[in-house]
Amino acid sequence: MADILCLGEPMLEFNQQPATGDGRSLYLEGHGGDTSNAAIAAARSGASVGMVTAIGQDAAGESFMALWQAEGVETALVARDAEAPTGIYFVTHDERGHHFTFYRRGSAASRMKPATLPEPALRQARALHLSGITLGISDSACDAGLRAMEVAREAGTLVSFDTNLRLRLWPLARATAVIHAAIALADLVFPSLDDAQALTGLQAPDAIADFYLTLCPLVMLKLGAEGLLVATREERRRIAGYKVPAVDATGAGDTMAGAFLARRVAGEDLWDAARYANAAAALSTTGYGAVAPIPNEAEVAAFLEANR
After folding, report:
1. Strand, helix or coil at 245?
2. Is position 237 within any domain?
3. Total structural domains in the chain?
4. Could you give the CA distance from residue 155 to residue 144 in angstroms, rounded to a whole number?
5. Predicted structure pTM score
6. Residue 24 lies in a domain
7. Is 201 part of a structural domain of the chain?
């Protein structure tokens, strides 16, 4: 069984490319879904990883099965639902950044529930990773995610949570209550600065870290191009961002989470693992799509060596 389990919704991606000469936009088909991205990032960084999810018995589902098998992500815990589709989304780009349009209502993953959880596998894993999206896609998936965290925590499995706030899924008040309840069940949390400002009403990174440290012992506050603030209850450090030719930030935070978990499960020091994850996230912005630009272990190591 895999060391790291990622629980959540995979989605087939259609990412907008630069316009052609006649002004039309072309879309590159790819793969997304935050926990699937994190799983692939962890696998490319050398970890043993598996997905816990449900996908449709459709072409998109087949595409994900082929992707995970090619990436070395275990699929034994992936359920196939003959009555529901695999979700899809579109990414568009403009001067304000990247934007998402989702088609996920009634997806196979949204039909996950506590009774379908592979509890023995959750207890045997070394780490479980999930996100606010997992909890926001439906009430039953929310119940499943929280139950998974409880089972893992009771077994001593490291529980990792990424806020990934999506207000199209649920109102801010409910998202805040549920996400903060989940963070209290986690061993480490990956909030983005934007998410944290919306969820807490606080603005300053250190104030946000102080708030989340009351709920969780390790905070990895994602600051975008500014890097990362890593805070424990004993120490905190800023890890500066890297200047790279960024073209698409889709999945950068997911890459950071997966890369960090891979290095921590491998026994790496907290601060070294954080620097590695920060570099992996930067490299993931240098290409289009959520998956294709995710770097492997050798690429991150070479980048870190070149930027010492």
Report:
1. coil
2. yes
3. 1
4. 17
5. 0.93
6. no
7. yes
Range of the domain at 219: 4-10+34-83+113-306
**Dihedrals phi, psi of 129, to nearest 5 degrees:** -125, 135
Which neighbouring-strand residues pair with 188? 160
Distance CA 216, CA 186 (A): 6
For residue 45, give the amino acid letter: S
Q: The tokens of 74 are what?
A: 């275990």
Print pLDDT tens along the chain (308 aa): 899 999 999 999 887 887 777 778 888 888 989 999 999 999 999 999 999 999 999 999 999 999 999 999 999 999 999 999 999 988 887 888 778 888 898 999 999 999 999 999 999 999 999 999 999 999 999 999 999 999 999 999 999 999 999 999 999 999 999 999 999 999 999 999 999 999 999 999 999 999 999 999 999 999 998 999 999 999 999 999 999 998 878 889 999 999 999 999 999 999 999 999 999 999 999 998 789 999 999 999 999 999 98
Give the CATH number of the domain where residue 217 resides: 3.40.1190.20
Of residues 104, 109, 37, 45, the one with CA closest to residue 77: 109
Exposure string for 261-280, b = 16+ CB within 10 A, e = fewer: bbbbbeeeebeebbbbbbbb
3-state class (DSSP) for residue 10: coil
Is there a domain that residue 18 lies in? no
* β-strand pairing of 218-222 with 227-232: antiparallel
Residue 65: φ, ψ to 5°: -60, -40
Burial call 14-31: b when 16+ CB within 10 Å, e when fewer:
bbbeeeeeeeeeeeeebb
Reading the block at residue 5, the tokens are 């389990």
Q: Do the beta carbons of residue 224 and residue 192 sit within 8 Å?
A: yes
Alpha carbon separation from 15 to 93, 245, 249 (Å, rounded) = 9, 18, 12
DSSP bridge pairs for 99: 92
